[in-house]
Write a structure and sequence with these properties.
Order of helices and strands: HHHHHHHH
Helix content: over 70%
Number of domains: 1
Radius of gyration: 17 Å
Strand content: under 5%
Number of helices: 8
Structural class: mainly alpha
Number of strands: 0
Largest sheet: none
């Protein structure tokens, strides 16, 4: 396949993976009787899942036109956006139902998806802390990369299970497709890493 055609196909797939779940969720009937804070929290969770799909591809330079030396700086910014999206997601749920959030954080919630969401949240925060304080921790690059990648894998697994177990605003087929792509992306990067120190 010609490289330009391949690039167009990849970017088309990425665009569909980003826009279709958002459009489907925006048309969900479950939003009809929800308050704006809940809706904002729900869409922040959806945005976080989309960013989780993009992060490995940016870090390893698998997106056409964004080799690793250009993708990694964007990866850092998107990582900051991911942390912000998670905070908004949790804050929205906290405002609408504090007891549910407390139960989730204490792993006392009767809903299995809550525990997976909390695990993913802490993995995201851990990966962000490693990225932000990499030089201060004075870790060898290989050790740092393994720790960061390990937390990224936990993030993807936790987020995907969390999303799949929830029957919420996300439409089922687009949600499954996005989760599949997120898992595929992180597996490809783990199996065929391109990153280097720096």
């Amino acid at each position: 396949m010609d490289r330009p055609i391949q690039s167009v196909l990849i970017w088309t797939l990425v665009a569909l993976a980003v826009t279709v779940p958002i459009a489907a969720a925006a048309n969900s009937q479950l939003l009809a009787f929800r308050d704006p804070i809940y809706i904002a929290g729900s869409f922040a969770g959806l945005l976080a899942l989309i960013l989780i799909f993009l992060q490995p591809l940016l870090a390893a330079g698998y997106l056409p036109g964004l080799p690793a030396n250009r993708g990694r700086p964007l990866h850092r910014w998107v990582g900051g956006g991911l942390v912000f999206a998670v905070v908004i997601h949790v804050a929205g749920l906290w405002i609408t139902s504090p007891p549910d959030v407390v139960d989730a954080l204490l792993f006392a919630s009767p809903t299995p998806f809550s525990a997976w969401g909390v695990i993913a949240m802490w993995a995201i925060f851990g990966a962000a802390m490693l990225a932000a304080f990499r030089k201060r921790f004075k870790l060898r690059f290989r050790v740092w990369r393994r720790a960061h990648t390990g937390l990224a894998v936990v993030t993807v697994i936790g987020s995907v299970v969390h999303a799949l177990l929830i029957e919420g605003t996300m439409e089922t087929m687009s949600k499954v497709a996005l989760c599949f792509l997120a898992v595929l992306a992180v597996l490809k990067v783990v199996a065929y890493p391109r990153t280097r120190a720096g």
